[in-house]
Amino acid sequence: MLSFVAQRVVKGVIVLLAIIVLNFFLIRLAPGDPAVVMAGEAGASDQVFVKQLREKFGLDKPLPEQLFIYVKGVVTLDLGFSFRQQAPVAKLIMERLPATLLLTLTAFAISLMLGVLFGTFAARFAGTVLDTAITVFALIFYAMPIFWVALMGILLFSVTMDWLPSFGYDTVGANLTGFAHVVDVARHLVMPAMTLGLFFMATYTRMTRASMLEVKRLDFVKTARAKGLSNAVIQRRHVLRNALLPVVTLAGVHAGTLIGGAVITETVFAWPGIGRLMYDALLQRDYNLLLGVFVTCSVMVLIFNLITDLVYRLVDPRIEFAS
Amino acid sequence: MKQFWKSMLKSPSGVIGLFILLLAISVAVFGPMLFPNSPWRMVQRPFLPPFTLSTVPLGTDALGRDVFAGMIFGARVSLLVGLVSTLVALVVGVPIGAMAGYFGGKVDDALMRFTEFFQTIPSFALAIVLVAILQPSIYSIVASIAVVSWPPVARLVRGEVLSLRTREYVQAAVVTGQSNSWIILREILPNALSPVIVLASLMVATAILLESSLAFLGLGDPNLISWGYMVGAGRTVIRQAWWITVFPGVAILISVLGLNLIGEGLNDALNPRLSREGR
Questions:
Q1: Which of A19, A61, B94, B193 is the 20 to 30 A CA-CA neighbour of A52?
Q2: Cβ contact (<8 Å) for A155 and B205?
Q3: What residues form DSSP beta bridges with B42?
Q4: Which of B121, B134, B237 to mutate to test the interface with A (most CBs of A within 10 A)?
Q5: For residues B194 and B4, is the Cβ–Cβ distance under 8 A?
Q6: Which of A123, A140, A255 sits opposite B257 (nearest CB)?
Q7: What is the nearest CA distance from A276 to chain B, expressed in angstroms?
Q8: pLDDT tens digits, A254-293
Q9: Residue A2 class from Cβ within 10 Å (0-12 exposed, 13-18 middle, 19+ buried)?
Q10: What pLDDT score was predicted for residue A222?
């Protein structure tokens, strides 16, 4: 188990280094001389200042050395400075990270639970009206763009029915504390989390249904039935456990999509996370911040993939850790 | 081929999907000829509600531009970007997968690490960064969608090639001294095609979603109207004018749904082994 984790961590670190190198070259792809761009962002563009910037950020050094300085910076959590926001990029990201984690993890939990639930139902009642209804809904949710779902949610639940707040993390100026604040944040979280979760819920529903039907036909299920186990036990212990494996794999593959969805969801609902930060950076062409958020997203995906790898090994009855 | 169409037309999802796709293609091709209102020109007062004037059936947006015209011209952009970026992704992914599967060993290792690397990077975030840095245009959008969507193709093709390589007819071609490229192109790839076709139809759907999301965030080609751009432009006035965001979104939903259904139909028709049972 330990060596497996160590192996995965090493692999993750290598990928991370590669991403940082990619990031370095992406910055150089941006139009214009970085020093001139930075000077422009800082609001001054005289030659002396540009030269100072060039020296300060090592832009006068040869490319390999610049790369080394950049990698060293990122590894020590120095992601550069955002002149637009007048703050270090790493600080801006750390401030926003909790909100994004709250949103994505809630959305992920909702989508996984509901998806597996609906998928199990659809498989259990395969061929009935219930199955068809679940399948059709899953297909439709699967085809809806996230930004549109978000806007339709606002139209329905905020504008028309006035049930839920349409933007922000909590009520501005309410100064709620304790439990009242938790409830307030939860009310603000409902729509963004549901919006983000809906697409993934549809995916997990389809996947669970398909793989339950697949596993059901396998020999070991027949054996379990022949042993005289009750249907509920067979469904839960034998079918569902094995059918969940592809769902776990899919969840790992989808980590990046989840983060991408968060950019859109946070933008529409003005949710103060790193997705919204990315959108702001985009509007202001703040490349340092943009690429800082990009690296952070990549790290989040790497960690998430590591976790799903571990979960897979824990869930898969064919892999024993004891050996 | 006849067999293929027969089973394709037998699956209800395939038929509905084909119908939707044909509709979307004809709108994209002939729509602008039949309905020459420019989507950028002011044709009526701003915020004209839908179904009030027959010349502007779906109303106007905040600048008095025709929403219906925008939807028709937007179909061109969505379908074009979806198809072209998928083609580019195939052009990149198929050779990489084929080489990895055919040559194996170190080549396989290197190519697959490369592919995994691209699969780990959050795709939408990378697409945003690429389009932002290369400046939004139809070329940068197609390129960045292709960059984020080729890895699954490479992995799929590799798997197929890996299993086909050991078949006897391939071995026979090796023995008769055919060149590697001849064997890959003439013997192996044609037999690995059906799962690639299924994947491609789903990729077009994903590409349309990606393009609309980029355009929604303001990263669309500034010279081309697209559904995502329209929804993005209508976002700030959603409380006064619901129709500006609702209709283009429905257009995206229907096209993506159609392509997904085609994917399912193709899957049933091309992989009869997997279909039917349990449906």
A1: A19
A2: no
A3: B65
A4: B121
A5: no
A6: A140
A7: 11
A8: 888 898 899 999 999 999 999 999 999 888 878 888 889 9
A9: exposed
A10: 83
